[in-house]
Amino acid sequence: MTIRIDELDRKILGELQRDAAQSLDDIARAVGSSKTPVWNRIRKMREGGVIRSQTALLDPEALGLEACFFVLVRTSEHDAAWQAKFLETLRKRPEVMEAHRLAGDIDYILKVRVSNARAYDLFYQALIAEVKIHTVTALLSMEEIKSTTALPL
């Protein structure tokens, strides 16, 4: 189901991205509308798949997950069975925050959050034990410059 998104919807989405825990009254006030139309638009956008879920953003460092690695994966395997096994393996690993299949020389890039380099090595050893991978390159993020979940509206 494709729904049309107008300027008011974009304002509502902006408010939800800023703080999804705020009340309908606060959202309505911020976007210059009233509570019922805002609620109806949010419901429509949920039903239409524009709003996938609401969640809390946690501070990884406060939880001891101080190391962020970007993992570049090259494979010599490109058949469906290998890919299914690889994707299943990634989905089971809570350390994998993001995974993307790429065009170009690198096949996949993973964003992995762990406590330290030893924890990354344990993740790496488990990954290569489950799936045949041609090469893996791990890049440690020294500093997070920008991180957002907000889409440009």
From TrEMBL:
It comes from the Bacteria. The keyword Glycosyltransferase does not apply. Residues 5-66 form the HTH asnC-type domain. Coiled coil: none annotated. Pfam families: AsnC_trans_reg (PF01037), HTH_AsnC-type (PF13404). The keyword Transcription applies. Keywords: DNA-binding, Transcription, Transcription regulation. PANTHER family: DNA-BINDING TRANSCRIPTIONAL ACTIVATOR DECR, LEUCINE-RESPONSIVE REGULATORY PROTEIN. This is Lrp/AsnC family transcriptional regulator. It comes from Roseovarius ramblicola.
